[in-house]
Amino acid sequence: MSKISSIKKAINITEAGMRAAKRNLRVGISERQLASKIEQAMRTAGTDWYAFPTIVVAHNYKNIHATPTDYKIRKTDTVIVDIGAKVEGHCADMTRTFCLSPTEKTKKLYNLIKSSQELSASQLKPRAKARLVDKVARLFLKKHKLKIPHSLGHGVGKKVHERPSLKPRSRDKLKLGDVVTIEPGIYLQNVGIRIEDMYLITKRGAKKLTNF
To answer: How far apart are alpha carbons 156 and 169 in whole angstroms?
Structure first.
């Protein structure tokens, strides 16, 4: 099976995990319990293993790679779920932010993050400078007094983090056939939001591979 075929299969399994996250999210379930439901769904769907430790975080989201805890989720919590399956040596990487009862502020912030992602994704094409793709999202969010505290994205393949690196000082350029993530995120006092999707660089630009 080719690299792209393996990655697509890993994505399908990862999306089964996301469906489990949405299905099982409720007031009172702990981060650890929800992570277990997600991992079980991915195993059932056929993952060989996990591309990285499952991230389910509703309270310690300022730690970007926080480990799930026994914290019990509340209805207004933003719940960041960052997961990935691994199939035939190739990885998937996807993040969604859930909230059972979002405030108007949360909805507004979510839409801003989504818009920044879409703007950056529109710049994906062969020979594009990775740092300039990153810059598009940062400039958009800066207008709204928001800041991404980490890289905008990265390549994905046999490792979950590969080149090209989409960050301010990157010297990488995108190549035909690259698979990259775009994952803007903000982490404020009472709200944490990150959205991550995977894209394949094609002659015509980028094809979005994640659809959940």
So the answer is: 19
